[in-house]
Specification:
Blueprint: H1 3-20, H2 28-40, H3 42-46, H4 53-70, H5 72-78, H6 86-97, H7 101-122, H8 126-137, H9 141-154, H10 167-197, H11 211-229, H12 246-265, H13 271-281, H14 287-310, H15 319-325, H16 334-368, H17 371-411, H18 420-430, H19 434-440
Helix pairs in contact: 1-4, 1-16, 4-14, 4-16, 5-6, 5-7, 6-7, 6-14, 7-12, 7-14, 7-16, 9-18, 10-17, 10-18, 11-17, 12-13, 12-14, 13-14
């Protein structure tokens, strides 16, 4: 394949994924999983519809870039985030109610562009820096993830102000958010163990077993909150510039890139978790820097994880896209890596332009359609997606996960604790305790 032919595949993937990213809770990994299943069907192959593996790799890389940049739109305008974008929602919703939703999307896009630049600067160092780091860290991944999990839990500080007439009522006011955070982590962890050791979805869609859980944990609770609150979104202002300095952009991108690199390098960690740790480490306070950092974090998390798969001497398989691509394709030359780096640069520019254009489209939609009806439509779409992909079993999982995901909404604790659905089974299996715990719970 010629270079520009491969770039066309990558750019086409970016354009397609940017449009799909506007659909609430439609994760790009689910789309690609279904695409690969369709391409592998005998009738499709017999019809002569075969995509060369190097072209397929560039198509998927472009799709990851488009999704990483543009999935800010449902997070800000529809309030149906995924696990890596959930941190954008709170300040993003604040901006939306201040008529500045477009500015929030633009700030996140600036963070993504900054993260793309960071990946371009890091690209020549993967073999001489990241590969040795991987060799050093590999034997210690289990306890590093354990410490990260512990930090996420204990950083759920009490949020009460000591209201109440008795000591017990004041104690509950101070500690109910912490208790809710712990309950969320434990319950989501139990759900994760159930899905890991006794999958409930049909066998032919077993690779989508976590999809209904994530929809229930993150997307549905936000939509229910919007429906019950009857929020009226004010008319949005489409700005020509953003109120941000170069220093603020650098701080936000640096913190987000650091968090994204942690998430891209360590298994199970997400961009939200990496961004949380990096934000605390760099003392992020400004909302603008926060939104920029989260845009950068999720870009490095999604795109960096796949780009490192192409890196010679590293071949790091992290993230859902790399895992789906690895059985079909293995990069074989340094030239392929630099083609992937070039594709990231081109696709990031295209995705940023589409983010701004599609954000204007989202503003036009919420100006014409009542926000509550949009929320009802989003809820119907979520139920339909889960039902079509995973059947009634997936709907059962999503309903259970929704009950867990509503705990942070009702008690104002971190939604990050819902990541127990992944962290608990992975950490227990890494420590060698997974089967014993599953047997105790009657899952074996």
């Amino acid at each position: 394949m010629g270079y520009w032919t491969l770039m066309c595949y990558a750019l086409a993937g970016t354009a397609i994924a940017s449009l799909l990213a506007c659909v609430p809770a439609l994760h790009i990994y689910n789309v690609v999983g279904l695409l690969l299943l369709i391409l592998a069907r005998p009738e499709v192959v017999s019809a002569g519809i075969v995509v060369p593996t190097d072209s397929l790799a560039m198509l998927l890389l472009g799709m990851v870039v488009g999704y990483a940049v543009v999935n800010t739109i449902p997070s800000v305008f529809w309030a149906a985030p995924d696990e890596s974008a959930v941190w954008i929602v709170l300040p993003g919703q604040t901006y939306l109610m201040q008529r500045r939703g477009y500015e929030a999307a633009a700030l996140s896009g600036i963070g993504s562009l900054g993260a793309a630049l960071v990946l371009l600067l890091v690209a020549p160092l993967t073999e001489i820096v990241l590969a040795p780091i991987r060799l050093i860290v590999q034997p210690h991944v289990h306890w590093v993830l354990g410490l990260v999990t512990l930090y996420v839990i204990i950083s759920e500080w009490p949020k009460g102000i000591g209201r109440g007439e008795t000591v017990l009522s004041r104690l509950w006011d101070g500690w109910r958010s912490l208790a809710a955070g712990l309950a969320t982590f434990v319950l989501s962890g139990l759900l994760g163990l159930l899905l890991a050791f006794r999958p409930l979805v049909p066998v032919h869609v077993s690779f989508q077993s976590l999809m209904p859980a994530f929809v229930g944990l993150y997307a549905v609770p936000w939509v229910i909150q919007n429906i019950l609150s009857g929020t009226r979104v004010p008319e949005q202002y489409v700005c020509r510039s953003v109120d941000v300095t170069l220093g603020l952009i650098v701080r936000g991108v640096a913190a987000g890139a650091l968090g994204g690199l942690l998430a891209a390098f360590f298994p199970v960690m997400t961009g939200g978790m990496g961004g949380l740790i990096a934000g605390h480490a760099t003392a992020q306070r400004d909302e603008r820097a926060f939104i920029i950092s989260q845009g950068a974090s999720k870009f490095v998390y999604y795109v960096g994880a796949l780009l490192f798969f192409f890196a010679p001497g590293l071949h790091l398989t992290r993230g859902g896209m790399a895992w789906m691509l690895s059985p079909l394709y293995q990069p074989y030359a340094l030239e392929t890596y630099w083609q992937a780096v070039g594709a990231v640069a081109l696709c990031a520019a295209l995705a940023f332009g589409m983010l701004l254009g599609l954000s204007r489209g989202a503003i036009s939609v919420i100006a014409r359609v009542d926000y509550r009806w949009l929320s009802w439509g989003t809820l119907g779409l979520l139920i339909g997606l889960v039902s079509v992909v995973t059947g009634w079993q997936g709907l059962l999982i999503a309903c259970t996960a929704t009950g867990i995901g509503l705990i942070p909404v009702l008690f104002h604790s971190r939604r990050m604790n819902c990541m127990g659905v992944l962290l608990a089974p992975v950490l227990l299996n890494m420590a060698g305790w997974g089967p014993a715990v599953a047997d105790t719970l009657g899952l074996l």
